[in-house]
Amino acid sequence: MNDTASRQLVLVTGGASGIGRGIAELLERTGTCVIPVDLQPSGHRYGVELDITDEGAVMAAVSEIEDRHGPVTGLVNAAGILGKVHPPERLRLSDWERELRVDLTGTFIMARAAGTLMAGRGAGAIVNIASIAATSSAPTLAYSAAKAGVVSLTQSLARSWGRSGVRVNAVSPGFTRTPALAAGIAAGVLSATNMEEPTALGRLLEVGEIAEAVAWLLSPKSSGVTGINLPVDAGYLCGVTWAGYQS
Questions:
Q1: Is the pLDDT confidence value at 2 over 90?
Q2: pTM recorded for the entire structure
């Protein structure tokens, strides 16, 4: 067992890029030992390449991580995929199933693997990355459905493990400046103006703002908080309905 054993140890899925990477980097700056888990190489010294939809591989990886680094104290489920924007009649069932498999089932597999161990030790915190699409409407049918499932799963896991000392919460980001968002704008699928205009703050989110919310939910500062879905959306949800009114 190495020097990481005496510190907080947090697994971050999707930690090689985007919001997951931003979360991992912020947590490391606060002194947390972070292990990025991703299908792609992260370049991190403790990084683990893993398919979160493979239950056997996940169980083996979590066990190996604990053997090498000590007990996992936190988990951030940030891994996910966003498929193409298609109307219902054009959405392939294989694409629907793939998105649900990664975004929802993968979240459950990781949460169960790490959360069961945390519950056995009587302490831990899990943060699942959902989306504002989980509680609203979007042309991303499979993604939105999967993220709605993540919110519901979060509440159920919070109640299931609460008496065992494990807190489970969700963060729902709004439109956030990531490479994926930039690619969507460049491809003409997304409009920066249309994403910014409805928000109360009149802007997009930065990755660091999502990371700060996650760090708080992992920390003892939120010790009384479990089962919530926290939108970090620059006020998009509270502002979008104003578009129908003359200012």
A1: no
A2: 0.94
